[in-house]
TrEMBL record:
<comment type="function">
    <text>Reversible hydration of carbon dioxide.</text>
</comment>
<dbReference type="InterPro" id="IPR041891">
    <property type="entry name" value="Alpha_CA_prokaryot-like"/>
</dbReference>
<dbReference type="GO" id="GO:0008270">
    <property type="term" value="F:zinc ion binding"/>
</dbReference>
<dbReference type="InterPro" id="IPR023561">
    <property type="entry name" value="Carbonic_anhydrase_a-class"/>
</dbReference>
<keyword id="KW-0862">Zinc</keyword>
<dbReference type="InterPro" id="IPR018338">
    <property type="entry name" value="Carbonic_anhydrase_a-class_CS"/>
</dbReference>
<dbReference type="GO" id="GO:0004089">
    <property type="term" value="F:carbonate dehydratase activity"/>
</dbReference>
<feature type="domain" description="Alpha-carbonic anhydrase">
    <location>
        <begin position="45"/>
        <end position="293"/>
    </location>
</feature>
<dbReference type="InterPro" id="IPR001148">
    <property type="entry name" value="CA_dom"/>
</dbReference>
<keyword id="KW-0456">Lyase</keyword>
<feature type="signal peptide">
    <location>
        <begin position="1"/>
        <end position="21"/>
    </location>
</feature>
<dbReference type="Pfam" id="PF00194">
    <property type="entry name" value="Carb_anhydrase"/>
</dbReference>
<dbReference type="InterPro" id="IPR036398">
    <property type="entry name" value="CA_dom_sf"/>
</dbReference>
<comment type="similarity">
    <text>Belongs to the alpha-carbonic anhydrase family.</text>
</comment>
<protein>
    <recommendedName>
        <fullName>Carbonic anhydrase</fullName>
        <ecNumber>4.2.1.1</ecNumber>
    </recommendedName>
</protein>
<keyword id="KW-0732">Signal</keyword>
<keyword id="KW-0479">Metal-binding</keyword>
Amino acid sequence: MHFSTLISFATISSLLYSALACESCSGSAKNLHRREAEGGEGGEPGFTYLGLTGPVDWNQFEGAQSCGDGKSQSPINIESTMKISAYGDVGEYADIGATGFNFTNTGHTVEVFYKGQPAVLGGVEYELQRFHFHTPSEHRLDNEWFPMEVHFVHQGRNDPSKLAVVGLFIDTNEENTSDPMMARLATLLQSIEKPGETVVATHVPLSGVRTGITGAKKFTYPGSLTTPPCTEGVSWYVSNTILDVSISDYKIFKRVLGYNSRNLQSGPGQQNVVDFAAQFLPSVANRVASKKQKRTARRFSA
């Protein structure tokens, strides 16, 4: 059986769990309200990571049909044999100094709105827009999940329609130490534990991130935003550099973020996992069919 098919079968159980999440899970999802999508577009109100408004239902939102039928969706399993970015990628992110930038609990993640820092990815000039965190990691590396993942979201400097996201895995370590960025943000995070709260992030070192982008090996593939509207055409660069986080700092992030990770998707060009699951789960099939009927009705009434 083809590996991607195995991934799809494994995803069915994840989708089923999401769709039928028990009431005891609601405590983990209660803070998941509204968040801007990764590329900066307005996110859909009400989407969550569990239950009836979890990933299995994201394509029900207006303009988010790619979540259910797109064939280049993210995240995916990164295999060490995948294509490596052949360009001299550079992330020239300066350390955040005394002026600082907003660090916000959006209700779906915690996000630093650090704009304007230059980066060259795949030979294209970008500017950093923001970075945010997921627990656990959204991507896998050779089928291995990590406790956390950070996404640095970029917009094309000369073409704002171009989006690129750099992902770095975050893991605990035997020395029980944290990357300087993680240590500083964990301290600040205790001031924004509730959705909607913001603190000004000052004196945040980014040396570990610069190392993870400039000169590091990065796996690249064409994917999508990992939240509604799941827009495709996003250039992904997943670094093999892993940032450290101590157990105590990880617990702070985990307490605030809860579970905010989209289930694994098929590889680029392959069948969408929601479409695949619809073959086996009647409830998913009914929701997909209902969404398609609504789109058809709108076309004929236009």
